[in-house]
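Chapter summary example.
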Amino acid sequence: MSRFTIFIVDSLKMIPIISIKSLLTDGKDDSVDDQIGRACMDVGFFIVVDHGVSKDLQRDLEVSTKRFFDLPKRVKNEIHMSRALKAWRGYFSVGEELTSSVVDEKEGIYFGSETPEDKRPLHGSNLYPNKEMSRVVPLYMKQMTKLGRTILRSIARFLKVSSEFENQFNRPTTLFRAFHYPPHDPKYGSEVFGVGEHTDYGYLTILKTDDVGGLQVKMMNGSWSDVKYVENGLIINLGDALEHNTQGLLRATPHRVIQRKNTTRSRYSWPFFFDPNFDTEMINVKLPPSLELIARKRREDERSRWDGKDPKKYRGTYGKYLMQKVSKVFPELARKSKL
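The structure predicted for these 339 residues follows.
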Protein backbone atom coordinates (compact mmCIF):
# COMPACT_ATOMS: atom_id res chain seq x y z
CA MET A 1 0.00 0.00 0.00
CA SER A 2 1.30 3.45 -0.91
CA ARG A 3 2.29 5.75 1.92
CA PHE A 4 -0.06 8.32 0.39
CA THR A 5 -3.18 6.18 -0.10
CA ILE A 6 -6.35 8.17 0.65
CA PHE A 7 -8.79 6.37 2.92
CA ILE A 8 -12.31 7.22 1.74
CA VAL A 9 -14.01 6.94 5.11
CA ASP A 10 -15.71 9.32 7.49
CA SER A 11 -12.50 9.62 9.48
CA LEU A 12 -13.84 12.79 11.13
CA LYS A 13 -15.68 10.48 13.52
CA MET A 14 -12.26 9.86 15.05
CA ILE A 15 -10.15 12.99 15.32
CA PRO A 16 -6.55 11.71 15.61
CA ILE A 17 -4.75 12.27 18.92
CA ILE A 18 -1.02 12.66 18.32
CA SER A 19 1.80 12.88 20.84
CA ILE A 20 4.46 15.32 19.63
CA LYS A 21 6.89 14.78 22.49
CA SER A 22 9.56 13.47 20.12
CA LEU A 23 9.34 16.61 17.97
CA LEU A 24 10.14 18.70 21.04
CA THR A 25 13.02 16.50 22.21
CA ASP A 26 14.55 15.24 18.95
CA GLY A 27 13.52 17.98 16.51
CA LYS A 28 11.92 15.54 14.08
CA ASP A 29 10.33 12.12 13.92
CA ASP A 30 9.27 10.51 10.65
CA SER A 31 6.50 8.55 12.36
CA VAL A 32 4.98 11.66 13.92
CA ASP A 33 5.39 13.60 10.67
CA ASP A 34 3.47 10.83 8.93
CA GLN A 35 0.66 10.89 11.52
CA ILE A 36 0.32 14.66 11.25
CA GLY A 37 0.52 14.62 7.46
CA ARG A 38 -2.16 11.94 7.15
CA ALA A 39 -4.42 13.83 9.57
CA CYS A 40 -4.00 16.98 7.46
CA MET A 41 -4.87 15.08 4.27
CA ASP A 42 -7.73 12.95 5.56
CA VAL A 43 -9.36 15.05 8.29
CA GLY A 44 -7.98 18.58 8.55
CA PHE A 45 -8.31 18.27 12.35
CA PHE A 46 -6.16 16.55 14.98
CA ILE A 47 -5.37 16.90 18.67
CA VAL A 48 -1.82 17.20 19.99
CA VAL A 49 -0.75 16.04 23.43
CA ASP A 50 2.66 16.18 25.11
CA HIS A 51 3.00 19.59 23.47
CA GLY A 52 5.08 21.29 26.16
CA VAL A 53 2.78 24.27 26.74
CA SER A 54 2.92 25.26 30.42
CA LYS A 55 -0.07 24.04 32.46
CA ASP A 56 0.46 26.87 34.93
CA LEU A 57 0.33 29.42 32.11
CA GLN A 58 -2.83 27.81 30.73
CA ARG A 59 -4.45 27.98 34.16
CA ASP A 60 -3.51 31.66 34.53
CA LEU A 61 -5.01 32.34 31.11
CA GLU A 62 -8.25 30.61 32.08
CA VAL A 63 -8.56 32.50 35.36
CA SER A 64 -7.82 35.93 33.90
CA THR A 65 -10.17 35.34 30.96
CA LYS A 66 -13.12 34.30 33.10
CA ARG A 67 -12.49 37.17 35.49
CA PHE A 68 -12.67 39.62 32.59
CA PHE A 69 -15.86 38.22 31.07
CA ASP A 70 -17.56 38.33 34.49
CA LEU A 71 -17.20 42.13 34.50
CA PRO A 72 -20.15 44.44 33.66
CA LYS A 73 -20.46 45.22 29.96
CA ARG A 74 -19.75 48.92 30.50
CA VAL A 75 -16.36 48.01 32.02
CA LYS A 76 -15.51 45.57 29.25
CA ASN A 77 -16.39 48.23 26.68
CA GLU A 78 -13.52 50.36 27.99
CA ILE A 79 -11.31 48.28 25.66
CA HIS A 80 -13.85 47.93 22.85
CA MET A 81 -12.45 47.16 19.39
CA SER A 82 -13.65 50.50 18.09
CA ARG A 83 -10.84 52.12 20.10
CA ALA A 84 -8.18 50.23 18.14
CA LEU A 85 -9.81 50.64 14.70
CA LYS A 86 -7.55 49.17 11.97
CA ALA A 87 -5.43 47.31 14.55
CA TRP A 88 -8.48 45.07 15.11
CA ARG A 89 -7.77 44.55 18.82
CA GLY A 90 -9.93 44.62 21.93
CA TYR A 91 -13.36 43.55 23.16
CA PHE A 92 -16.61 42.84 21.33
CA SER A 93 -19.94 41.92 22.89
CA VAL A 94 -22.45 39.20 22.06
CA GLY A 95 -24.18 39.99 18.78
CA GLU A 96 -21.39 42.08 17.23
CA GLU A 97 -19.49 39.34 15.38
CA LEU A 98 -20.99 37.64 12.33
CA THR A 99 -20.34 34.39 10.48
CA SER A 100 -21.81 34.30 6.97
CA SER A 101 -23.86 37.40 7.90
CA VAL A 102 -25.46 35.61 10.90
CA VAL A 103 -24.85 36.71 14.50
CA ASP A 104 -22.53 34.56 16.64
CA GLU A 105 -23.62 34.08 20.25
CA LYS A 106 -20.26 34.82 21.82
CA GLU A 107 -18.20 37.69 23.19
CA GLY A 108 -14.46 37.96 22.99
CA ILE A 109 -11.16 39.82 23.02
CA TYR A 110 -8.85 40.05 20.01
CA PHE A 111 -5.08 40.17 20.45
CA GLY A 112 -2.09 40.10 18.11
CA SER A 113 1.66 40.58 18.04
CA GLU A 114 2.73 43.91 19.52
CA THR A 115 3.75 46.09 16.56
CA PRO A 116 2.98 49.67 17.70
CA GLU A 117 4.91 51.35 14.85
CA ASP A 118 3.36 49.19 12.11
CA LYS A 119 0.51 51.09 10.42
CA ARG A 120 -0.73 48.21 8.27
CA PRO A 121 -4.24 46.91 8.97
CA LEU A 122 -4.44 44.22 11.69
CA HIS A 123 -1.14 45.42 13.18
CA GLY A 124 -0.57 47.62 16.23
CA SER A 125 -0.87 47.48 20.00
CA ASN A 126 -3.11 45.31 22.13
CA LEU A 127 -5.81 46.65 24.43
CA TYR A 128 -5.31 44.78 27.69
CA PRO A 129 -8.05 44.91 30.34
CA ASN A 130 -5.66 44.43 33.28
CA LYS A 131 -2.04 43.77 34.27
CA GLU A 132 -2.62 40.04 34.57
CA MET A 133 -3.69 39.68 30.95
CA SER A 134 -0.90 41.96 29.78
CA ARG A 135 1.49 39.47 31.44
CA VAL A 136 -0.20 36.19 30.48
CA VAL A 137 -1.24 36.79 26.85
CA PRO A 138 2.23 37.61 25.43
CA LEU A 139 3.73 34.60 27.22
CA TYR A 140 1.00 32.32 25.89
CA MET A 141 1.33 33.70 22.36
CA LYS A 142 5.09 33.10 22.51
CA GLN A 143 4.57 29.43 23.41
CA MET A 144 1.87 29.08 20.74
CA THR A 145 4.20 30.56 18.11
CA LYS A 146 6.88 28.04 19.03
CA LEU A 147 4.32 25.22 18.84
CA GLY A 148 3.00 26.51 15.51
CA ARG A 149 6.51 26.40 14.02
CA THR A 150 6.99 22.86 15.31
CA ILE A 151 3.78 21.60 13.73
CA LEU A 152 4.27 23.49 10.47
CA ARG A 153 7.79 22.10 10.07
CA SER A 154 6.41 18.61 10.59
CA ILE A 155 3.81 19.20 7.85
CA ALA A 156 6.49 20.66 5.57
CA ARG A 157 8.73 17.61 6.04
CA PHE A 158 5.79 15.32 5.20
CA LEU A 159 5.14 17.32 2.02
CA LYS A 160 8.87 17.74 1.28
CA VAL A 161 8.47 21.51 0.89
CA SER A 162 10.38 22.74 3.94
CA SER A 163 12.27 25.60 2.26
CA GLU A 164 9.13 26.99 0.62
CA PHE A 165 7.22 27.01 3.92
CA GLU A 166 10.11 28.58 5.82
CA ASN A 167 10.18 31.51 3.41
CA GLN A 168 6.53 32.24 4.17
CA PHE A 169 7.02 32.33 7.94
CA ASN A 170 10.03 34.51 8.73
CA ARG A 171 7.52 37.09 10.04
CA PRO A 172 4.32 35.08 10.64
CA THR A 173 0.91 36.64 11.15
CA THR A 174 0.01 35.62 14.71
CA LEU A 175 -3.43 36.44 16.09
CA PHE A 176 -5.06 35.27 19.32
CA ARG A 177 -8.61 35.31 20.69
CA ALA A 178 -10.29 34.64 24.01
CA PHE A 179 -13.99 33.74 23.63
CA HIS A 180 -16.92 33.34 26.01
CA TYR A 181 -20.07 31.55 24.87
CA PRO A 182 -23.00 32.20 27.23
CA PRO A 183 -26.12 30.00 27.17
CA HIS A 184 -28.45 30.64 24.24
CA ASP A 185 -30.59 33.78 24.47
CA PRO A 186 -33.95 33.35 22.66
CA LYS A 187 -33.83 37.00 21.54
CA TYR A 188 -31.30 35.98 18.87
CA GLY A 189 -33.73 33.51 17.32
CA SER A 190 -33.48 29.86 16.38
CA GLU A 191 -30.99 30.14 13.48
CA VAL A 192 -27.93 31.36 15.37
CA PHE A 193 -24.99 29.31 16.64
CA GLY A 194 -22.13 29.95 19.03
CA VAL A 195 -20.23 30.20 15.75
CA GLY A 196 -21.81 29.29 12.44
CA GLU A 197 -20.31 26.98 9.83
CA HIS A 198 -16.98 28.29 8.55
CA THR A 199 -13.38 27.51 7.72
CA ASP A 200 -10.45 29.45 9.14
CA TYR A 201 -8.42 31.78 6.95
CA GLY A 202 -4.77 30.92 7.30
CA TYR A 203 -2.52 27.91 7.86
CA LEU A 204 -2.88 26.61 11.43
CA THR A 205 -5.35 27.20 14.23
CA ILE A 206 -4.25 25.96 17.66
CA LEU A 207 -7.32 25.80 19.89
CA LYS A 208 -7.45 25.47 23.65
CA THR A 209 -10.94 24.75 25.02
CA ASP A 210 -12.59 23.93 28.31
CA ASP A 211 -14.47 20.66 28.87
CA VAL A 212 -17.95 22.02 28.12
CA GLY A 213 -17.98 20.87 24.49
CA GLY A 214 -19.87 22.22 21.51
CA LEU A 215 -17.28 22.21 18.73
CA GLN A 216 -18.37 20.14 15.72
CA VAL A 217 -16.71 19.31 12.40
CA LYS A 218 -18.47 18.56 9.12
CA MET A 219 -17.98 15.05 7.78
CA MET A 220 -17.70 14.20 4.10
CA ASN A 221 -21.32 12.99 4.03
CA GLY A 222 -22.53 16.40 5.28
CA SER A 223 -23.35 15.36 8.85
CA TRP A 224 -21.76 16.91 11.94
CA SER A 225 -19.53 15.18 14.50
CA ASP A 226 -18.53 16.38 17.98
CA VAL A 227 -14.88 17.02 18.80
CA LYS A 228 -14.33 15.32 22.14
CA TYR A 229 -12.45 17.04 24.95
CA VAL A 230 -8.97 15.65 25.68
CA GLU A 231 -7.30 16.62 28.96
CA ASN A 232 -4.44 19.05 28.19
CA GLY A 233 -4.91 18.46 24.48
CA LEU A 234 -4.78 21.24 21.92
CA ILE A 235 -6.96 21.02 18.82
CA ILE A 236 -5.25 21.77 15.52
CA ASN A 237 -7.15 22.57 12.35
CA LEU A 238 -6.09 23.85 8.94
CA GLY A 239 -7.17 27.02 7.17
CA ASP A 240 -7.96 28.17 3.64
CA ALA A 241 -4.46 29.45 2.86
CA LEU A 242 -2.91 26.04 3.54
CA GLU A 243 -5.55 24.36 1.38
CA HIS A 244 -4.86 26.98 -1.31
CA ASN A 245 -1.08 26.64 -1.22
CA THR A 246 -1.15 22.82 -1.29
CA GLN A 247 -3.51 22.83 -4.31
CA GLY A 248 -6.32 21.30 -2.26
CA LEU A 249 -4.26 18.40 -0.93
CA LEU A 250 -4.68 19.43 2.72
CA ARG A 251 -8.13 20.09 4.11
CA ALA A 252 -9.62 23.24 5.59
CA THR A 253 -12.55 21.40 7.18
CA PRO A 254 -15.79 23.31 7.97
CA HIS A 255 -16.62 23.49 11.67
CA ARG A 256 -18.99 25.30 14.03
CA VAL A 257 -19.97 25.74 17.68
CA ILE A 258 -23.52 24.58 18.31
CA GLN A 259 -26.35 26.70 19.64
CA ARG A 260 -26.15 26.45 23.42
CA LYS A 261 -29.73 25.59 24.36
CA ASN A 262 -30.87 24.06 27.65
CA THR A 263 -27.67 24.77 29.56
CA THR A 264 -26.64 27.14 32.33
CA ARG A 265 -22.89 26.66 31.82
CA SER A 266 -20.71 29.05 29.90
CA ARG A 267 -18.17 27.80 27.36
CA TYR A 268 -14.67 29.29 26.94
CA SER A 269 -12.14 28.83 24.17
CA TRP A 270 -8.79 30.31 23.15
CA PRO A 271 -7.90 30.03 19.44
CA PHE A 272 -4.42 31.02 18.26
CA PHE A 273 -3.80 31.56 14.54
CA PHE A 274 -0.36 30.86 13.07
CA ASP A 275 -0.43 32.14 9.52
CA PRO A 276 1.92 33.26 6.70
CA ASN A 277 3.70 36.60 6.50
CA PHE A 278 1.15 39.34 5.91
CA ASP A 279 2.78 40.43 2.64
CA THR A 280 3.62 36.99 1.23
CA GLU A 281 2.03 35.98 -2.06
CA MET A 282 -0.35 33.04 -1.82
CA ILE A 283 1.17 30.67 -4.35
CA ASN A 284 1.14 26.90 -4.77
CA VAL A 285 4.09 25.01 -3.33
CA LYS A 286 5.68 22.36 -5.58
CA LEU A 287 4.48 18.99 -4.30
CA PRO A 288 6.20 15.63 -4.95
CA PRO A 289 4.66 13.82 -7.95
CA SER A 290 2.83 11.26 -5.75
CA LEU A 291 1.12 14.00 -3.74
CA GLU A 292 0.43 16.13 -6.81
CA LEU A 293 -1.55 13.21 -8.28
CA ILE A 294 -3.66 12.99 -5.12
CA ALA A 295 -4.23 16.76 -5.10
CA ARG A 296 -5.29 16.67 -8.75
CA LYS A 297 -7.73 13.81 -8.08
CA ARG A 298 -9.22 15.75 -5.18
CA ARG A 299 -9.74 18.81 -7.32
CA GLU A 300 -11.54 16.69 -9.91
CA ASP A 301 -13.82 15.11 -7.29
CA GLU A 302 -14.30 18.28 -5.25
CA ARG A 303 -17.73 19.19 -3.98
CA SER A 304 -18.94 22.75 -3.56
CA ARG A 305 -17.66 24.46 -0.41
CA TRP A 306 -19.91 25.65 2.40
CA ASP A 307 -19.59 29.27 1.18
CA GLY A 308 -19.60 28.58 -2.57
CA LYS A 309 -16.05 29.99 -2.83
CA ASP A 310 -12.83 28.36 -3.96
CA PRO A 311 -9.77 29.70 -2.10
CA LYS A 312 -7.47 27.90 -4.55
CA LYS A 313 -8.43 30.48 -7.19
CA TYR A 314 -7.29 33.44 -5.09
CA ARG A 315 -4.36 35.52 -6.33
CA GLY A 316 -2.67 38.09 -4.12
CA THR A 317 -1.08 38.46 -0.70
CA TYR A 318 -2.20 36.66 2.42
CA GLY A 319 -2.80 40.02 4.11
CA LYS A 320 -5.23 41.11 1.40
CA TYR A 321 -7.05 37.78 1.61
CA LEU A 322 -7.26 38.07 5.40
CA MET A 323 -8.62 41.62 5.26
CA GLN A 324 -11.32 40.60 2.79
CA LYS A 325 -12.42 37.90 5.22
CA VAL A 326 -12.34 39.80 8.52
CA SER A 327 -14.14 42.82 7.08
CA LYS A 328 -17.22 40.59 6.74
CA VAL A 329 -17.00 39.48 10.36
CA PHE A 330 -17.32 43.01 11.78
CA PRO A 331 -18.83 44.99 8.89
CA GLU A 332 -19.53 48.10 10.98
CA LEU A 333 -16.00 48.18 12.39
CA ALA A 334 -14.62 47.61 8.89
CA ARG A 335 -16.60 50.61 7.66
CA LYS A 336 -15.31 52.85 10.47
CA SER A 337 -11.76 51.54 10.02
CA LYS A 338 -11.95 51.98 6.23
CA LEU A 339 -10.69 48.45 5.69
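To summarize the output: The CA atoms of residues 249 and 294 lie 7 Å apart.
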